[in-house]
């Protein structure tokens, strides 16, 4: 079969679902192609929750994208009638000169954000579930919190379909090509033509960008949940999300939700050759780092994981995103390499991707995420 659209979006996960939503809301005829199902557990946008924060220690240039993301999450909540963002705060711990502490303070100074700086002793008193060593500095961001990740994807797609988008799930993209002034996409079911294309396929982006030789590395990552009856881990007891930079790695997590505390290591990860074949079992090695972190920094939490989920990071060499137009085809737009810290941006970067393919320019500053930057050159 063959059909023609204004735009085709490859991948309907976090970023793709948002791009489909923004384009269809503008009245465009959009086709979203998804290899698996809606809000599936085979890629990167699953596992119940994702942290969202403004004092962005990775780079202060992300902050304008975050401020817009907050606005758009609230707009989507109003549209779908569901709470998607929970402002519970975030506590950051690390050495005074650590990247997380210094980076957060740089973002605050540059963009007039709100944080509280605490000593280790003040941090232990304020947040007694965390054992901050004396040499640590503590930063608390009250306007941070978490997103319900699968619910966010569903909300974007449900609204997109309401606006007239076509969504094809369980359909595998084989390839795409430029055809005249537009593009043609071939799948295991047929072919589709469109005026423009967005490639946002997560861990499956590499073969779709083979002509550009984009240096993307896919990593296996494990999310863990620890059951505890202790109410002091609850939001109601003043317990926020957390992110620690330690000598043993970077670890993050959430307050107790439904009787469980979720925790994961942000650093490390095993390279994945084929995303379809990633090992989704729980290995003994997967729990060693988190267990050591718990013993030292959250000693009241059990160290035996009750549940796990495997997801994937798709990383660039500098761990910054790729959001840009194809260098040879300005009707092809790329959103890739979100490097394990992208989901919070899906509302705003989905809008940016829509702008780039629809208007050939973005209202938000994305130059630092360009495909042509030095770190991506072979």
Automatic annotation (TrEMBL):
Q: What is this protein called?
A: Monomeric sarcosine oxidase
Question: Which Pfam families did the record assign?
Answer: DAO (PF01266)
State the organism of origin: Symmachiella macrocystis
Record key words, sorted: FAD, Flavoprotein, Oxidoreductase
Give the cofactors, semicolon-separated: FAD
Q: Which domain of life is it from?
A: Bacteria
The Gene Ontology terms for molecular function here are: flavin adenine dinucleotide binding; sarcosine oxidase activity
Tell me which residues make up the FAD dependent oxidoreductase domain: 6-356
